[in-house]
Structure formats: C-alpha cells, structure tokens
Amino acid sequence: GESLDFLILYYQVLNFAMIVSSALMIWKGLIVITGSESPIVVVLSGSMEPAFHRGDLLFLTNFHDDPIRAGEIVVFKVEGRDIPIVHRVIKIHEKENGDIKFLTKGDNNEVDDRGLYKEGQNWLEKKDVVGRARGFLPYVGMVTIIMNDYPKFKYALLAVMGAYVLLKRES
C-alpha cells in the first residue's frame, strides 16, 4: 500500500545518499593519499595534444618532497583563473637556497605560458601546482566536458537517471 511505497522510496533516497557520501569519502581519501587538492582532473583543451586530448581523465599526485623536473606534466592554478591548466614543464630555475621556479607550456601551443600567468609573473612556484599527472584514462571525462558545454545535457542525464530509479522501483 501507500506506506510501503513510502518506505521503498525512503530506502532508495537513503541508498542514493550512501552512494554519494561514499563517493565523497573516496574523493577525500584520494586527496589525502595523493597530496593533491584535486586528485582527478579532466583535460578541457587541446593544448596538450597529442599527449592528452580533451576529455582525458588525469590522475594527479602532489608530493612536496618530490622535486619537479623538466618534461613533467603539471596541473597548476593561476591567480584570477578558476580552472587549473594542464601543461608540461619546459624549464627549471633553481636557486641557491633550493627554491625551484619553473616555466610551463602546452605541447600543442606555439608559445610558453608566460601570457597565462598573472601579470608580472614569469615563473611558477611549487605553491601554484595542484598536482602532477601520474596516469590517465582516455576520453572518460568527455561526459564532464559535454555537461560543461551543454548544460541541458546535464539535466537530461539527471532526468534519465531519475526515471530509471522510478521505473526500476515499479518492476
């Protein structure tokens, strides 16, 4: 009857909440394990082709005692920009005191990233780095890109998922 339907719905909502919270816990766990505030990022532009393409999912680590080397692919944030950039380190500049500064560039870009850094900034420092690419899954992130490019798709996806849950309950 009615109360049974309510109970089933209640359990499904609870179940969904559990899935969401475990996903969040896994994410937090990854942050702790990898030392990176965003352990997984999606490549949003073609600036790193052919190494990475739009929609590739990158796994990052960010261990501070691990020195950054030229040729490594890093994800960095620039002041005033929300979205981190995934580019390759092309030059390292090491000071006497061990401070390292470095310059990045997209493999597919003609020029280095100095035009992207904040005004007057010529080098990146360790603190600008969100993480370093350690592995990737090709194209898995396309869903994210499609959701960013076509917000309506996001709602369609949610509607389909919602319908699926409801229909599954009926059967």
Automatic annotation (TrEMBL):
Residues 32-118 form the Peptidase S24/S26A/S26B/S26C domain. CDD domains: S26_SPase_I. SUPFAM superfamilies: LexA/Signal peptidase. One of its GO terms (cellular component) is signal peptidase complex. The keyword Endoplasmic reticulum applies. It is found in: Endoplasmic reticulum membrane. Keywords: Endoplasmic reticulum, Hydrolase, Membrane, Protease, Signal-anchor, Transmembrane, Transmembrane helix. One of its GO terms (molecular function) is signal peptidase activity. InterPro entries: LexA/Signal_pep-like_sf, Pept_S26A_signal_pept_1_CS, Pept_S26A_signal_pept_1_Ser-AS, Peptidase_S24_S26A/B/C, Peptidase_S26, Peptidase_S26B. Its EC number is 3.4.21.89. It catalyses: Cleavage of hydrophobic, N-terminal signal or leader sequences from secreted and periplasmic proteins. PROSITE patterns: SPASE_I_1, SPASE_I_3. The chain crosses the membrane at residues 6-27. It holds the Pfam family Peptidase_S24. One of its GO terms (biological process) is signal peptide processing. The keyword Nuclease does not apply. Gene3D superfamilies: Umud Fragment, subunit A. It is a single-pass type II membrane protein. Component of the signal peptidase complex paralog C (SPC-C) composed of a catalytic subunit SEC11C and three accessory subunits SPCS1, SPCS2 and SPCS3. Within the complex, interacts with SPCS2 and SPCS3. The complex induces a local thinning of the ER membrane which is used to measure the length of the signal peptide (SP) h-region of protein substrates. This ensures the selectivity of the complex towards h-regions shorter than 18-20 amino acids. Belongs to the peptidase S26B family. Catalytic component of the signal peptidase complex (SPC) which catalyzes the cleavage of N-terminal signal sequences from nascent proteins as they are translocated into the lumen of the endoplasmic reticulum. Specifically cleaves N-terminal signal peptides that contain a hydrophobic alpha-helix (h-region) shorter than 18-20 amino acids. This is Signal peptidase complex catalytic subunit SEC11. It comes from Apteryx owenii.
